[in-house]
Amino acid sequence: MPAPRHTPLHRYLADPAPIVFDDPKTGSPRYFLYATEDGFDDWGSRTFRVYTSKDLVDWTDGGQILSLDDVPWGDEHAWAPAILKHGDKYYLYFVCEGQIGAAWADSPYGPFESTGRPLVAKDDLPGYHIDPSVYTDEEGDDWLVWGNGICYSAPLGEDRLSVDLNAVWQWTPRGFREAMWYFKRGDTYYATWSENDAREATYQVHYATSDSLHGQWSEHGVLVEQNPAINVVGTGHHGILHIPGTDEWILAYHCFDPGYGNGYCRETRFAPLTFYDDGTIEQIGLPTTALDNRTGHRPIADRRMARMPPLMDDCSPVACGPCHTHSGRFARTAHAARPAVATRMNGPGLESDQARMPAPSPCHPLLTSRRLMEHG
């Protein structure tokens, strides 16, 4: 099903990588989301978790899949996971200390076991080795894609835990900063990437098209708008999900919570992609609801909330409903979503109210009340 436009996942998560797998627990297809755990100073996360959904609206915390405690060659900055299934194994590619790591598991829920050394180490190639993704070409070969300032692609080995750095392909588009993501729709190849600094409000997604992965690319500009008036900024690092058996494509991206400074508290959102007949993509617009400047978009002072599912930032006096926090304070939450479905998080220590509600009026975003419970 199409994702509600700009539906947020209510937890601080960045660098989203969405994918569909057959859930080993049920045997049915399910959406999986791998992302950076956010809300830490200096992007200081040390763990990875997985989140799952049957509809891209209601999400369940699937638990921790890898900790840097179990990565023998790194200790900090666990960022930007990417996932691949090959055969009956699952492979996780991730950032740690400016290097690319690899790990494997028997289930998309993990636990993943890290290799004993980086897949791409600091001195292997020039540049800063972050933000991996995986592209599978028409021959079925899997390519690791990564880089900051310089974009690299290299074929993964048969074991998917090694990479051939002697066969590196390099294409770095103008303005490229990081987070390249390739995909193919019909006869058109797409490249999407982030430009500008991840700490800045101008961090954003650009895209290009080509009729050949290694051919000439035509750049088309910004894919996701920003709206500083409602504090929706830093709409950068992203992943793209193709819903199998359809021509439906979903963009997952993150944006800032500017009230918490320097891009350390980012929220993952989802929006459908709309393609024109010439293969270009309609620029994704943003909600126009203004913030309540009298109370602030996040009135809770308790910094522990940085580890909790975040409150929405698309908030105005007429378009927000009350919610309780674990500290007993009241805050306001809102959704800017298209269908009459409210996003919620389930899992250990999280409880939510009202999954479905009456359709909102045309001039108000969809509302929900939410109770956030402190993690045990």
Automatic annotation (TrEMBL):
Any matching Pfam family: Glyco_hydro_43
InterPro entries named in the record: Glyco_hydro_43 (IPR006710), Glyco_hydro_beta-prop_sf (IPR023296), Glycosyl_Hydrlase_43_Enz (IPR052176)
Record organism: Bifidobacterium myosotis
Protein name as it appears in the record: Glycosyl hydrolase family 43
Family recorded in the similarity comment: Belongs to the glycosyl hydrolase 43 family.
Keywords assigned by UniProt, alphabetized: Carbohydrate metabolism, Glycosidase, Hydrolase, Polysaccharide degradation, Xylan degradation
CDD domains in the cross-refs: GH43_bXyl-like
Positions bearing the site annotation: Important for catalytic activity, responsible for pKa modulation of the active site Glu and correct orientation of both the proton donor and substrate: 131
PANTHER family in alphabetical order: ENDO-1,4-BETA-XYLANASE (PTHR43772), PUTATIVE (AFU_ORTHOLOGUE AFUA_2G04480)-RELATED (PTHR43772:SF2)
GO molecular function: hydrolase activity, hydrolyzing O-glycosyl compounds
